[in-house]
C-alpha cells in the first residue's frame, strides 16, 4: 500500500513537471487545483457516507428498541381515568410478556402472562371496525376466575377485592361527562392499589349520560355475559388462555363487559410510566 502511494505521488509529480514545461506556471497551478478539488470531493463523499451510516444505525436501533424493548403510546380516550388521562403519553414494556415476531402473534420467547392488576396494551379481539386496533385497559381477572361487579365493587371468585372510597360527589375529570359527578375509590389487586371512579347518578334519575351502572353482568342483552346467554350468571368465568379487562373509568369504558375476553396472545406489553405531559413526567402507572 505504501509503495502504491509513493508511485502515485511520483507519477503526479512527473505529470506536474511535464505540464509545467509545456504550459508554464498556469498549467501547474491548474493541476494543483484539480488535485485539491478531487480531495475535497473525496472527503465530502466520505462525510456524507459516514452521516448515512450513523443515521441508518440510529434508525435500526430505534426500531429494535420499539419492537422488542419499549414502545411509546398516546392515550386516545378517557376509559382509564383517573389512572390515565386523555392525551397522556406512556411507555410500554414490550418484553414483559415475551418477545414476538413483529406483526404476528408468534412468540420467540415466552416470559410472564398478563396478571391481575396489570395495565396493558392489546389488540382489540372482537369483530368490527376496532378489530386489530390497540386498546389499553386493566386486567382484572385471569383464566379460571369467576368475576362480577356488585354495588360498584369488583368481586373475584366470590370475594370482593379490597376497596376504599376516597372521594364522594366530585367532578369526574372526564370531558365527555363534564357535568357529571363521581365517586373515586381505591382497589387492590395482587398487592397494588389503584384508583377507579364511577358516576353518582342512578339510571333514570339524572339522564343516561350520568348514570351509574353498579352491577355486571346484568339482564341487559347488549352486554357480554347477560342473563339468558351466560350459564355462569350472575358471574362470568374466564376461559383458558384469556383474561378479562375493564377500564378504571367504570361508567365510561368500552371494555370486556361489552365485548368479552382477550386472548393472551393479543397482548403487546405492560404500561410502565407516563412521560408526557409536564407535571406527570415519569409517574409510574399502578
Report the helical percentage: 10-25%
Largest sheet: 8 strands, antiparallel
Query: Can you tell me the CATH class of the largest domain?
Result: Mainly Beta
Low-pLDDT regions: 1-6
**SS-derived structural category:** alpha+beta
Give the overall average pLDDT: 83
CATH topology of the largest domain: Umud Fragment, subunit A
**Overall body shape:** elongated
**Which architecture name of the largest domain does CATH use?**
Ribbon
| Secondary structure: number of strands | 17
Number of DSSP helical runs: 3
What radius of gyration results from the CA coordinates? Answer: 32 Å
CATH homologous superfamily classification of the largest domain? Umud Fragment, subunit A
What is the helix/strand order?
Answer: HHEEEEEEEEEEEEEEHEEE
Cα end-to-end separation: 64 Å
Q: Which percent range describes the beta-strand content?
A: 25-35%
Task: Please indicate the count of domains.
Answer: 2
Structure commentary:
- There is one protein chain.
- The chain is of the alpha+beta class.
- The chain folds into 2 domains: 2-66, no CATH class; 71-284, Ribbon (Umud Fragment, subunit A), CATH 2.10.109.
- It has helices at residues 2-23, 25-68, 256-259; strands spanning 70-74, 89-93, 98-100, 107-110, 119-123, 134-142, 146-150, 153-156, 159-160, 162-171, 181-189, 192-199, 236-237, 242-246, 262-263, 267-276, 283-284.
- The strands form 4 sheets. Strands 1, 2, 5, 6, 14, 15, 16 and 17 form an 8-stranded antiparallel beta sheet that branches. A 4-stranded antiparallel beta sheet has the order 9-8-7-13, with no helix packed on it. It has a 3-stranded antiparallel beta sheet with strand order 10-11-12, with no helix packed on it.
- A hairpin with a 2-residue loop joins strand 8 and strand 9.
- Helix 1 packs antiparallel against helix 2.
- It is elongated, with a radius of gyration of 32 Å.
- The N and C termini lie far apart (64 Å).
Amino acid at each position: 500500500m505504501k509503495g502504491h502511494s509513493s508511485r502515485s505521488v511520483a507519477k503526479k509529480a512527473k505529470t506536474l513537471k511535464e505540464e509545467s514545461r509545456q504550459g508554464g506556471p498556469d498549467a501547474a497551478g491548474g493541476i494543483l487545483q484539480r488535485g485539491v478539488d478531487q480531495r475535497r470531493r473525496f472527503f465530502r463523499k466520505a462525510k456524507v457516507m459516514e452521516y448515512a451510516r450513523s443515521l441508518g444505525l440510529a434508525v435500526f436501533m430505534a426500531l429494535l428498541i420499539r419492537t422488542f424493548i419499549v414502545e411509546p403510546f398516546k392515550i386516545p380516550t378517557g376509559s382509564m381515568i383517573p389512572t390515565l388521562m386523555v392525551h397522556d403519553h406512556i411507555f410500554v414494556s414490550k418484553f414483559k410478556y415475551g418477545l414476538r415476531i413483529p406483526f404476528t402473534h408468534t412468540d420467540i420467547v415466552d416470559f410472564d402472562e398478563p396478571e391481575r392488576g396489570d395495565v396493558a396494551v392489546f389488540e382489540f379481539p372482537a369483530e368490527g371496525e376496532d378489530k386489530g386496533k390497540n386498546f389499553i385497559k386493566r386486567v382484572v381477572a385471569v383464566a379460571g376466575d369467576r368475576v362480577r361487579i356488585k354495588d360498584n365493587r369488583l368481586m373475584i371468585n366470590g370475594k370482593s377485592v379490597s376497596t376504599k372510597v376516597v372521594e364522594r360527589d366530585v367532578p369526574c375529570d372526564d370531558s365527555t361527562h363534564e357535568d357529571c359527578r363521581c365517586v373515586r375509590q381505591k382497589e387492590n389487586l395482587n398487592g397494588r392499589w389503584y384508583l377507579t371512579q364511577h358516576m353518582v347518578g342512578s339510571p333514570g334519575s339524572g339522564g343516561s349520560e350520568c348514570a351509574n351502572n353498579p352491577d355486571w353482568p346484568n339482564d341487559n342483552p347488549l352486554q357480554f355475559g347477560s342473563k339468558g346467554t351466560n350459564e355462569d350468571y350472575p358471574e362470568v368465568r374466564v376461559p383458558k388462555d384469556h383474561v378479562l379487562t375493564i377500564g378504571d373509568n367504570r361508567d365510561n369504558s368500552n371494555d370486556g363487559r361489552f365485548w368479552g375476553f382477550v386472548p393472551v396472545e393479543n397482548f403487546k406489553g405492560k404500561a410502565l410510566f407516563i412521560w408526557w405531559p409536564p407535571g406527570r413526567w415519569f409517574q409510574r402507572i399502578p
